[in-house]
Write a structure and sequence with these properties.
This protein is α/β, with parallel strands linked by helices and about 250 residues long. It contains eleven helices and eight strands. It has one domain: TIM Barrel, CATH 3.20.20.70. It starts with 9 loop residues before the first strand and ends with a helix. The mean pLDDT is about 95. The structure holds 1-deoxy-D-xylulose-5-phosphate and the ligand NCC(=O)COP(=O)(O)O.
Length: about 250
């Protein structure tokens, strides 16, 4: 790393979709905790797992085991509800990332509306902070959302890269990258640690990894899908190399 290079980025590996495959047959294979331990051994800097309200992939028992067995930080993604806040304060993961959830959605469709939901979010963020859990808010790169996240006492914002990843053409992707660039700069100025994630792949991650404010990337669906072909250790190693090259 040269004197002017930004700090290295942590790679959080999201293991939700190992559980999706397990749940398709109702048994115990493949085990998402075994995948998390393999990811840890393969260089992952953290593990992310999203306990959805409908338990469609990760289940409560998975999180209990992750908490007991992992040596690297566990980032628990969850809806900002009383039920989830109670589970989190009992489980005590390293971090909780509050995400919006709609029961019918295929995946997380947008950022959390921290501006519109500030009143209900405030006590839940305070409960997590009081329990010593690092609070992250999964938001779109919008100035008002970022400022509200800082006011509410979050330590981190995770910028939703879904619109960037799903952009239909290069021009639309450049617009989304511009929003993420401005958002990352603004969030860092507001004193927030900046993370990013959703829909990231080998091909689209370099411009996001090159944003100097971004300290952590959380990547799941692509890594788990690609691991079918190449194996999880190879895929994590390659993703880390792509990220490091973009950061250099
Ligand atoms: C919050 C988020 O970005 C999602 O990536 C999630 O953690 C993955 O799970 P889903 O595919 O169920 O949305
Ligand atoms: N918060 C984003 C995440 O954990 C992973 O998203 P994806 O790579 O599964 O789309």
């Amino acid at each position: 790393m040269s004197a002017s290079s930004p700090a290295p980025i942590r790679l959080g590996v999201n293991i939700d979709h190992v559980a999706t495959v397990r749940n398709a047959r109702g048994g115990t294979h493949p085990d998402p905790v075994r995948a998390a331990l393999l990811a840890q051994k393969s260089g992952a800097d953290g593990i992310t797992a999203h306990l959805r309200e409908d338990r469609r992939h990760i289940r409560d028992a998975d999180l209990e085991r992750l908490r007991a067995e992992l040596a690297i930080p566990l980032n628990m993604e969850m809806a900002a509800t009383d039920e989830m806040t109670t589970i989190a304060t009992r489980l005590h993961p390293h971090a909780c990332c509050l995400v919006p959830e709609r029961r019918q959605e295929v995946t997380t469709e947008g950022g959390l509306d921290v501006l519109g939901q500030a009143e209900t979010l405030a006590p839940r963020i305070a409960r997590l902070n009081d329990a010593g859990i690092r609070v992250s808010l999964f938001i779109d790169p919008d100035a008002a959302q970022i400022e509200t996240a800082a006011k509410l006492g979050a330590a981190v914002v995770e910028l939703h890269t879904g619109a960037y990843a799903d952009a239909p053409d290069a021009a639309a992707r450049a617009v989304e990258l511009g929003r993420l660039t401005t958002g990352a700069t603004h969030a860092a100025r507001c004193g927030l640690e900046v993370h990013a994630g959703h829909g990231l792949t080998y091909d689209n991650v370099p411009p996001i990894a090159a944003l100097p404010q971004v300290m952590e990337l959380n990547i799941g669906h692509f890594l788990i899908g690609q691991a079918i072909f190449d194996g999880l250790p190879t895929v994590i190693g390659h993703m880390k190399a792509v990220i490091a090259a973009a950061r250099a």
